[in-house]
């Protein structure tokens, strides 16, 4: 397989996963705002922080983080490379060049939601219509996964796409945990009004990763912070946990040409996650540890790119 095609398939997996996670984060945050009392202020800056595009947002919209600006920036802004529209446009462009490698239905679903975003524009971002728009994105992403898993040959191209999908999800899971739990683990004075609603906030963290029902089935107990963190970081069976994603990458690499650099990067990052004592990290500082995991994921991406995509 040409390195260019492998690179495209890898990034196709990442772009679809990114669009899905961004859309779900907005839906869950909107629901959180509705679940909390009106006198409890919940800002929208956390969504921008999760995506790691604070500087770009402030350059375009200032420091106000108004709801309408944040939603527009994360859904439609073409200048934001991580927006839903940008991610789907990039995935669609990749499909144009590798359509022979994927089932035809994949193009239909991605192109359809791309056109909805392009033609609907600002009028679909109002509170009354936003949920339907984002649900279209979620449905298209999940339908695409189903089609590819069920109908695409699980050859080397599929393996590169699976690498991208799992790496993107591991990265997004750490980002969501880092930003959404900081005020829950070490509340600041400004967060005091939210203290009585911590249970709702922990449920929101789970919902951001479609993990609430599986967490309750796994734990069979009320939502507890350390249990939530352990489940989302170290569970080996939940598809969006960091450990599951790293294990999937580990299962994929042997099906590709050998890359000792990628294997070493995966071993180091996997050991950091697997051996972590969550209770101790909550007490000593989860943020620094998550930074270490994110750096490890970044180095794993660099090793994969250097091994397979550099012509």
From TrEMBL:
Q: Which domain of life is it from?
A: Bacteria
Q: Which residues form the DUF403 domain?
A: 1-309
Designated name of the protein: Putative alpha-E superfamily protein
Organism from which the protein derives:
Sinimarinibacterium flocculans
């Amino acid at each position: 397989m040409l390195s260019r095609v492998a690179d495209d398939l890898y990034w196709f997996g990442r772009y679809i996963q990114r669009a899905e996670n961004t859309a779900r984060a907005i839906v869950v945050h909107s629901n959180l705002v509705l679940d909390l009392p009106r006198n409890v202020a919940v800002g929208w800056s956390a969504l921008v922080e999760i995506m790691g595009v604070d500087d770009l947002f402030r350059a375009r919209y200032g420091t106000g983080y108004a709801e309408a600006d944040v939603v527009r920036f994360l859904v439609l802004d073409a200048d934001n490379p991580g927006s839903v529209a940008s991610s789907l446009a990039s995935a669609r462009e990749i499909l144009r060049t590798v359509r022979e490698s994927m089932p035809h239905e994949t193009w239909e679903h991605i192109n359809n939601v791309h056109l909805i975003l392009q033609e609907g524009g600002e009028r679909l971002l109002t509170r009354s219509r936003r949920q339907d728009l984002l649900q279209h994105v979620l449905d298209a992403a999940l339908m695409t996964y189903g089609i590819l898993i069920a109908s695409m040959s699980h050859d080397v191209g599929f393996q590169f796409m699976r690498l991208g999908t799992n790496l993107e999800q591991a990265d997004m899971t750490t980002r969501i945990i880092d930003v959404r739990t900081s005020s829950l683990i070490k509340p600041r004075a400004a967060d005091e009004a939210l203290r009585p609603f911590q249970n709702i906030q922990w449920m929101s963290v789970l919902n951001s990763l479609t993990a609430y029902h599986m967490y309750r089935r796994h734990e069979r107990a009320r939502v507890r912070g350390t249990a939530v963190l352990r489940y989302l970081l170290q569970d080996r069976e939940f598809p969006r946990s960091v450990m599951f994603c790293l294990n999937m990458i580990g299962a994929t690499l042997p099906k590709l040409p050998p890359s000792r650099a990628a294997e070493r990067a995966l071993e180091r990052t996997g050991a950091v996650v697997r051996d972590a004592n969550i209770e101790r990290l909550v007490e000593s500082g989860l943020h620094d540890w998550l930074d270490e995991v994110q750096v490890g994921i970044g180095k794993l991406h660099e090793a994969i790119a250097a091994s397979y995509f550099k012509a």
